[in-house]
TrEMBL record:
Protein name: Heat shock protein 70
PANTHER family membership: HEAT SHOCK PROTEIN 70KDA
Family: Belongs to the heat shock protein 70 family.
GO molecular function: ATP binding; ATP-dependent protein folding chaperone
InterPro entries reported in the protein's UniProt record: ATPase_NBD, Heat_shock_70_CS, HSP70_peptide-bd_sf, Hsp_70_fam
Gene3D superfamilies, sorted: 3.30.420.40, Actin, Chain A, domain 4, Substrate Binding Domain Of DNAk, Chain A, domain 1
Domain of life of the source: Eukaryota
Keywords: ATP-binding, Nucleotide-binding
Pfam families: HSP70 (PF00012)
Source organism (scientific name): Blastocystis hominis
PROSITE patterns reported in the protein's UniProt record: HSP70_2 (PS00329)
Amino acid sequence: MDHTLAIDFGTSNSAAYIFKRKMEVLTDSNGNYLFPSYVMYNGDVAVIGNIAKINLGKPGKYVVASVKRLIGLRYEDYEKMDQKNIFGCEVVRGEDGYPRFVVNNQGGLRSCIEVASEIFKAIKKRADYYGSPNVYDEAYLTIPANFDARQCKAIKLAATLAGLTVRKLIAEPTAAALSYVLNSDLTFLPQEKMIVYDFGGGTFDASLLTYDESSGIQVLGENGDNHCGGNDVDLALCEYIQNTVREEEHIELIPPSKSARRKSSRLRSITDIDLSEVNDALDTFTITAATLGVIINPIIKRTIDCVVRLLENNDLQPGNISYVFLVGGSSKLASVTKSLQTLFGSSCQFPSVDPDHCVAFGAMCLLHSDCTNPKALQKSLSTSYGLGIGNGQVLIMLKKGCTLPLTSRYYTFTTTVERQQQVNMKIYQHSGNVDLTERFSMVSEKNCHYIFDLELSLLKKRIVAPAMIDITFSFDIGGVLCVRCFRHDNQELLYNEVFEPLSGT
C-alpha cells in the first residue's frame, strides 16, 4: 500500500492520494491538490498542469485539453462529436485509425495514450518526491462507470507507459460513495439506497448503490453520458456570449474563442466576465444567475434523464432514494442542486463530500480496505456474458445480477469435425434479464452484442479430434473477463485469454 497511488484521472482536473503513514491527498509545491489535465508541448518537452492550462489558446502554443474525452475512441468517433473544438490542438487521423494531436508547427503528432501518460508521469513524479523514500509504481485508477473496453484499455496503457502497474480499476461513482460511507459515523440501513451524481469536466455518471457493514457497498446499476460535462457548459456559455455580443455590440467573436472559453468556465461561480482580452472594444460582460440557469438547462436535463433511466431500469421511484452524493466540479452548479432536489424531494439527504477529490480519496479508501476489509465493496454483474454455440443460440456463462468476483461452472464441448484443427466461437454480451435460478440459460444471438472471438488452435496443442474441451468464464470487480479452456481428460490448460476491462460492472 505504501507504493500504490489512488488516481482520479479527470477531463479537466486530476487528483491523487498516497499512503505515507496515513492517507494523504497529493499536492503540488503550492499546496494545490488538483492537477489540471492539460499538456503543453514545447519542442520535445511536455509541460503539464497550470502552466499548460494558462497557455491554452495562445498563439504558437500547443496545448492538449480534455484528452480523457477522446482516449480509446477511434477517429470516426471523434468525427461524430458535436463539439470537436474542446481539445486545444488540431486532431487528425492516425495511421491506425485513432486520433492524433498536432503538437508543433512541423506537424508532430501525439496519440491520446501518449498525452494521458504525460499526466500520469507528472502525478507519479510528484508522488515519488513527496513520498520519498517510497517509490510509487502501482495504482488504483478510477474510470467513468460506462467507459467501454477500448477506453478502459487505453487509459490503463497510458498509466503503464508512465511506469505504473494498474492493480484495480474502480468506477468513479463507486469510489465517491466509498469516500463517504467508509469514513462516516452514520449508520446506513441495508434497504437504504443512494445515488452518486458524478458531473465532471467531460463525462457524467450516475450510480445506484446500497451499503451495510456486513456486505459492504453493492453497486445495483449505472447510467451515464460520456459526452456530457463541464466542457459542454463552457461551450454553451461561449455560444451565448458570442450571440449576445453579436446582437448588442455588432462585434463578431471568433467561435469558439479558447480564451473566452477559459473565462466562461469561471461563470460557474461568478456573474461577471472580462472580455477585454478577447476584443479591445469589449469590457465586462454580465450574466445573471437566472440566465445562466436557462442557458445550461438542456445540459442539466441530459444528466437528470440519465438518473431517471437508472431508477426506471431498477424499478425504483425517486422516493426510494435516501442519499444523493454530488461529485465532480460541474456538480457545484446551483442548477444541479435545484434540479435534483426537485426530483428527489425534501426527504432525500445530500451528504457533504468534496466534489473535487472525493473520487481519488474513495479509491484510496478501497485500497486501504482491500488490505484490511476485502468486503468493503461488492458489485454485481450488470450484463450477462455468453458463448455462441451455433444455430443462433448463446449459452449464458455469467449471469447478470450475480455478485463479483464471479466464476462460471465448467461447460464441456466436443469437436464435431474429424481432424478439426481449430475451435472458433464467439463471445457475447446480453443486457436482458436472465433467471438466476436456472442451471442453464440460452438466449438468441439476435438479442446479444458480439464482443470477442475465442480462437483455439487444436493443431498447436497437438489435440486430435474428436476432443472434449472444458470452458469457463470469470469476471472480477475491475471489469476483467477471463476465458479459460482445458482438456477434459487431464485438465491441461489450453487457452487463457484476458479481455480487459469491460463495462460489465
